[in-house]
Specification:
The chain is of the alpha/beta class. The protein has 7 helices and 17 strands. The strands form 4 sheets. Strands 12-15-14-13-16-17 form a 6-stranded antiparallel barrel. Strands 3-2-1-4-7 form a 5-stranded parallel beta sheet, sandwiched between helices. The termini are far apart.
Length: 336
């Protein structure tokens, strides 16, 4: 009987994952990760679920690692005029990094998570695929997992919709059945700008000028951390036609804005590319997502760039470009 350690937050997804795996005959235990100071009742809620299911519950503290890797990257990205996705960094290094290592050391065969994605094995190669629920699919934030990780991971919810998961939780009388969705950035209470202001030196957030793409000064911005590519509202300037953030110029502490048509581009630079299985031969065709909720767009992927068939809106440095072949994740990298 395989021993499975399920990452549990006390929410409905992880609770149902543990419930289903136990029902399938696995030797299941639950584990709650303490990663930051925003955690309130997660461990208590998860413990109640584990007691109800009759399984062991462990608490692992990885706060220092989380701060060194995830929070540091988050802050440094904004200082560098990039918009990060901390879930991608956390998944690679924490949930499927140090937790997986800890599970192996503790005698578990695999770990399981309540992510909406699938892992399928074909001829000894593990493939990461989209989850059944299109709106909840989380394959985008898992693209940095390689064969070693994928071979030791289970996603029990990959073939279910969120509604089906809640129904299972209700039928099983799990107290998490109606629990609200967790917030996107789990370590931030309040706004991301408040978090950054509390963790940055004042000199890192300076007002500066706003220019149009012809170099004409239009006004002042309150600090580059408040803006992202494609942003329209909150610019604090009056123009004849709507304008959007086209570029964040960190060198000159300037914000460049322009009309909607100027937020579109067919090309972007990408670095630190990783593949889920074997490395693909460049160049190759793929459908590429530039945000989690972005519709995959046809493109050609090169070693250091991606060229789209049609222009895409708001390509944002710091986000990830994730490559798909149908429902299968090939890999991806960070947008420069």
């Amino acid at each position: 009987m395989e021993k499975i350690l399920v990452g549990m937050s006390g929410g409905v997804d992880s609770s149902v994952s543990a419930y289903l795996l136990k029902k399938q005959g696995y030797d299941v235990s639950g584990a709650t990760l303490v990663l930051h100071d925003c955690v309130k009742t997660e461990a208590e809620d998860a413990k109640k679920i584990c007691d109800m299911l009759g399984i062991n519950h462990f608490v692992f503290e990885f706060k220092q690692k989380f701060e060194e890797v995830v929070i540091k990257n988050f802050i440094e990205s904004y200082i560098s005029a990039k918009t990060p996705n901390p879930c991608i960094i956390c998944n690679e290094n924490i949930k499927f990094g140090v937790l997986l290592d800890k599970a192996k050391e503790s005698g578990f065969d695999k770990i399981a998570m309540g992510h909406y994605a699938k892992i399928e094995s074909e001829n000894g190669i593990f493939k990461l695929k989209k989850g059944k629920d299109v709106q909840k699919d989380q394959s985008y934030v898992l693209y940095r997992l390689g064969q070693e990780q994928l071979s030791h991971v289970l996603f029990p919810l990959g073939g279910l919709t969120k509604q089906e998961v809640r129904s299972i939780a209700s039928e099983a009388l799990l107290p998490s059945a109606e629990r609200e969705e967790s917030q996107e950035n789990c370590f931030i209470e309040g706004s991301y700008t408040d978090f950054l202001l509390n963790n940055l030196e004042p000199s890192k957030v300076r007002p500066g000028d706003i220019y149009d793409t012809q170099g004409r000064k239009l006004g002042r911005h309150k600090g580059l951390i408040y803006y992202t590519i494609g942003q329209r509202s909150g610019l604090g300037i009056t123009t004849e036609k709507p304008v959007y953030v086209i570029k964040i110029d960190i060198l000159h502490n300037a914000l460049i804005v322009g009309p909607k048509e100027e937020i579109y581009s067919k090309e972007m630079e990408v670095d630190d590319i990783k593949f889920t299985s074997q490395e693909a031969a460049y160049p190759f065709e793929a459908e590429v997502k530039i945000r989690r909720m972005h519709k995959p767009a046809k493109a050609v992927v090169y070693e250091d760039k991606v060229i789209f068939e049609e222009p895409q809106a708001s390509i944002t440095p710091g986000q990830s470009a994730v490559f798909y072949k149908g429902d299968t994740v090939i890999g991806g990298g960070f947008i420069k």
